[in-house]
């Protein structure tokens, strides 16, 4: 029984000794305890609020740093700093950390959310830009408008089921765009797979939840070793997440073979293979890119629309003014508004922008890491240092 404890102690000591090497002058932040860092103070939920509070406490200079069990993190708390580092110097800050649990053990090295800044990442970005740049996005407008009308009709019938209607709308829209797939029932198989995948991805990537993320050497423990249950969990989740992307992808291929496929992100890419890329490699690239659309779009959309409803209930004067603007454009014609009407509705557009500013659906953004040593305003951070941007109220 003593062996696992001895191994754990040795690993902790090694992790601490490694953390002592190559000390850099980091941005200010809570110091925490040796080895543990701020593990006790780090919140389990709504961490962005704590990050914003720490930012104000430690100089309000645009970023803070801290470590949890030896893992150093830099959090950007300023739009100006985020634009400078992640925008103007994106070549340095476009890499992604590859966490042991959600990345390595779950074999997610090809995932758009964890992939390094390499040629495959550039292909993903090219695929996404080809379908979601401002001009190409107009191809999706009919889908957005049709699903919006279905959602409004459903809400008018059963307003008590508002959140369920919002979730169905987001799922139906993303599945149609990504795969040309139509959701025709409340509990759809592909949607159930995707929603479970979202839950799994959130659990696997939760900051501070998995000891192996702070002590990567634990990933080398045998699966049968006491306390190594996280490895067995990672294997099960890995298979589950891959199935989530594979099944709808294969469904599109079957529809294409039968000549019944509707135009979609996946079908268009499968039909436009670069002759210098093998069919198998191209298929794999499309599979992983398409699988990211639901994860990136469904929950964020639901979150933003829920916030909109909440704020309209809190501010009926704003709701009344926005409704009057909409009515002034479409009421005389007896129709519902369309996306083409948006330039004629500056007040409503400002309301939507404020919704996204006040409660961004992804308040800590996507984790990045540096591809070379960063230096900014008398501080430095070594290569591969994880960083994140945050928004707090």
Point out poorly predicted stretches. none
Tell me the distance between the termini. Answer: 48 Å
Element string (H = helix, E = strand): HHEEHHHHHHHHHHHHHEEEE
What's the name of the CATH homologous superfamily of the domain at 99-295?
Answer: Cytochrome P450
Largest sheet: number of strands, sense, barrel closure: 4 strands, mixed
CATH architecture of the domain at 99-295: Orthogonal Bundle
Overall mean pLDDT: 86
The fraction of residues assigned to DSSP E strands is 5-15%
Name the CATH class of the domain at 99-295: Mainly Alpha
Q: What name does CATH use for the topology of the domain at 99-295?
A: Cytochrome p450
User: Gyration radius, to the nearest Å?
Assistant: 23 Å
Give the number of helices.
Answer: 15
Q: Please bin the fraction of helical residues.
A: 55-70%
Major sheet: order of its strands?
Answer: 1-2-6-3
Based on helices, strands and strand pairing, what is the structural class?
Answer: alpha+beta
* Number of beta strands: 6
Shape: globular
Family: Belongs to the cytochrome P450 family.
Biased composition (Low complexity): 376-393
Region (Disordered): 372-393
GO molecular function, one term: heme binding
